[in-house]
Amino acid sequence: MTPSERSKAMALKTVMAVQPSVGDYKEFAKLLRQRFNLELKRYKQAALKAAKEYMRSSKNDSLSSDEFDLLVKILIERQYPLSSKLGYELTISDYQKNKAQLMALDAYERPYTFNRIYAENMARARILFSQEKARDISYWFCRKVLRNVNHRMRRNLANAGISAQWLEKRWTVPVIKGQYMSPAVAKGLPDYVANMVSLITKMSERSHLKVQEAIAKGLTKGYNIQELAKSINGLENMDTARAERVARDQSCKLNQFVQRENMKAIGITHGRWVHVPGMYTYRDSHKFILNNQVFELAKGLYDPEVDKNIQPGELPFCRCIFNAVIPDNLLTEQEK
To answer: Measured between alpha carbons, how far is residue 63 from residues 111, 113, 143 in Å?
Structure first.
């Protein structure tokens, strides 16, 4: 952007952006960390219980960690038809590659009989610690962000000369008593909840797999139950810093989506990119190329680092925002 273009962009009448609330994402981070660590603790207990049952039945375990993980996934698919919604997707090739193991699994033949018992226990444990709490916490957070962003947007728009009556005609879907959002926000919000649920469950699943792999390897080495417990004791808990990075990232994405769609609903089509630096979010292209550029809200801006158009806050851990540009005719149209 040339100096003259930058000066012209800065002279445009804009609506101040609503930045993500630090209090909101810190509260979300705290709940996320508590849930993750409690779930991991319980999953470790479930894994040790399953291992103990397996050890009482047989000392023979001939499956590798990868094969064992596949059996767990297959058992989840078989016993819980809806589990594909949890992210457990198996292909035909998975079944074909492991035909012998599956035949033995179905026939209850050794050495797979007791592997099957153990795998069933682990499959049940993974299903148990799945989506319900993730959905609850995600839904709570999305409503909280939406409520706060809408409230602050109304104040900022009023300061820029946009009347409450104009908003009422275009933000028609109720959030809570006395607050409304645009139909586009209401339509897109379930996807944000679903994506957040998927993110949380995938993080949990990765931690579960590490527990499962450690125990499967321990069983093949002949560990006793105390040694198995020791092998999984130090597996990752979620610390405060990690929880806050995840929460901040999700907060930024949802915040920008709500503002973008609400602004478009009242006739604002362009925004001015505002680079927000951070310890883990610095990108040269956002600071030196995109910053202060005016762009169409429907299209975003081209980022050469990723070779595509993006929106503020879209890339992982991006904290950039936009100030909405008020069209010249918008203020006069309100008076008609």
So the answer is: 9, 12, 45
CB atoms near residue 333 (< 10 Å)? 10
User: What are the tokens at 181?
Assistant: 């959002």
DSSP state of 319: -
* pTM: predicted TM-score of the whole model, two decimal places: 0.76
Go through 73-93 and write b for each residue having 16 or more CB atoms within 10 A of its CB, e for each that does not: bbbbbeebeebeebebeeeee
How long a stretch of residues is the chain? 336
CA distances from 333 to 6, 153, 156, 270 (A): 28, 20, 19, 17
Query: According to the model, what pLDDT value does residue 65 have?
Result: 58
- From 96-100, 132-136, 218-222, 247-251, the region with the lowest mean pLDDT: 96-100
Q: Phi and psi of 224, rounded to 5°?
A: -85, 180
DSSP state of 237: P
Are 210 and 231 in contact by the 8 Å Cβ rule? The answer is no
Distances (CA, A) of 277 to 72, 108, 249, 291: 43, 59, 13, 11
Q: How many CB atoms lie within 10 A of CB 99?
A: 9
Encode pLDDT of 145-204 as tens digits: 999 999 999 999 999 989 888 999 999 998 877 788 999 999 999 999 889 988 888 888
73-106 pLDDT, tens per residue? 665 555 544 444 444 454 555 555 555 555 544 4
Pairing type for strands 294-296 and 270-274 reads: antiparallel
Note the pLDDT of residue 104: 47
